[in-house]
Design a protein that fits this description.
The protein has about 190 residues and is mainly alpha-helical. The chain is about 65% helix and about 5% strand. The protein is built from seven helices and two strands; from the N terminus they run αααααββαα. The chain has a two-stranded antiparallel ribbon with strand order 1-2. Strand 1 and strand 2 form a beta hairpin. It is globular and about 45 Å long.
């Protein structure tokens, strides 16, 4: 099995069952979500930076754990933002995939969502569609892995860069979740 296929399987596993939220709906969800995004971004940056410290071949072995650690933080952030807005019941695999990968693999996600005016509609997707999208996301992420491998040759500078990217990436995931859950009637659930 190739690395893109393994990444595709990991992407599917991430989105299939959203985690339990660690919070509940609040009167001012945007403020709480902003705090959650900053906290998750900082946590992701620290985790990614620490895992990127080993140099050379040992550092290569930390790429997959680093990506998984950041994705776990990000998927929890998405679940928490949905909960802050009282929308946990609407968080399914398509919405999770949209939030996690929209900013890095937008073209791959075109089958999941559409923009209608100011709203984004993410439709529940059949397993075949999710597998196809996960495959496209996996191919895109495979290219990113090559760039991350280069950062392992310069430990401190590479770790700082990886941490900074994880911070930015997590903020983008949080913004996608905000865009999706802050508006009423944003998720299209067929009756």
């Amino acid at each position: 099995m190739g690395s893109d296929a393994r990444l595709s399987d990991k992407v599917l596993a991430l989105v299939t069952q959203p985690p339990e939220p660690a919070c509940e709906p609040v009167p001012r969800p945007a403020d709480a979500a902003a705090r959650a995004i900053e906290g998750a971004a900082t946590k992701a940056a620290l985790a990614a930076g620490a895992l990127a410290l080993p140099a050379g071949p040992l550092g290569w072995a930390t790429i997959a754990p680093e990506m998984m650690a950041v994705w776990q933080i990000q998927r929890q952030l998405v679940a928490d933002i949905a909960a802050l807005y009282g929308r946990s019941a609407q968080l399914g695999p398509a919405q999770m995939m949209w939030c996690l990968f929209r900013h890095t693999a937008a073209q791959a996600l075109r089958d999941l969502g559409v923009r209608v005016g100011e709203r984004v509609i993410v439709r529940p997707a059949a397993q075949a569609v999710l597998q196809r999208v996960a495959g496209a996301v996996g191919m895109h992420l495979g290219k990113q892995v090559a760039g991350r491998a280069l950062s392992r040759w310069v430990p401190l500078v590479g770790a700082a860069g990886v941490g900074a990217y994880a911070y930015w990436d997590t903020r983008q995931v949080g913004r996608a979740a905000l865009q999706l859950f802050e508006r009423e009637q944003v998720i299209d659930n067929p009756a």
